[in-house]
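One record is given unchanged without comment:
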Amino acid sequence: PEPDPVRARTYRAAGHWRDDTIHGLVAASARDHPDKSAVRDASGASLTYRELATRSAALSGFLAGNGVGRGDIVTACLPNRADSVVAFLAVLRLGAVVNPVPTTYGRADLAFVLDKCASKALLIPGRFRSVDFTAVAETLLADGRDGLPVVRFGQGGKCIGTPLAEALAHPPVDEVAAVSADAPAAVLFTSGTESRPKGAVHTHNTILFGERAMAAALQVGPGDTAFMASPISHATGFLHGFAMTLTTGGTLSLLDIFSGDAAARQMREHRCTWTMGATPFLSDIADALSADGRGLPDLRYFLCGGAPVPEPLVRRATALGLRVLSIYGSTESPPHTIVHPSDPVENAWTSDGRPLAGIETEVVSGAREPLPDGE
């Protein structure tokens, strides 16, 4: 699919759509501050922007050598770890399209996505939680997908595909692909609560427009560290964690297995300045802060969306020093609205905030008739 040309001209004239690409902006960060921390995770792994560029270039070389090229879709079923970011960037460097899917996907879900996308490669952990993904991949390959390149991030029970270390030994693709900012960058699948999940196709521009608007509203940039326990293989983590943080030159702190205690410890250790997660994340972290009494002095914002945000929870979090900002968006067009930092605290539970700059909204009645301002 291609953007509607009339809309594209409108957005470009307004400055919302530009000529930047996600991988181009990350490459610029690597040139401007190569030794700055780009991504850290709960295992202790840490990559500078230079190391992120080096590892992603090598993985790009492996993928290219296995037939992945411009416009091809690569499915990545990976947890919140530093090398998962390497994988996303490696795909984008080729001008290919990232299809991140949650590690909660089973064999049937993965089969559906692989076939729907005609994926040219599959990236999996060896094991994660209680799942042996090498066994899942073995059944997928045996079921008519023989020959699909698989990269294995860690050990599993089966010797499926190519270990990441071997893939990273491949001669790199040093040149970042020159693709249009209106070319597809990612296919993000919805949760599928109404029927089969649908894949929303995003271009570099449709992603970067929203992320620039959100970064401007929050005034986050190179000096910020984002904490992300929401899966980077789904919309929140991929867009606001991976894309927004790294294209603005910040640092991304990833937690793969969530608990309130672990999240509070990591945010404190990594001096995280903002985070985003659904209400249960906020509740569990508030419990942890209440128990240890230490607070999170560096955290400026806790963005909360994806579920109702109850008033008692926000009041409790506020008393613990957390600034809660409710946010609303969808996989198809994230983000829409946010409680801005200058808004009253109570807006977090009375509203979903105000539209971000450039976002078009309309308020309608139950009969879908447009309503006047103030309603």
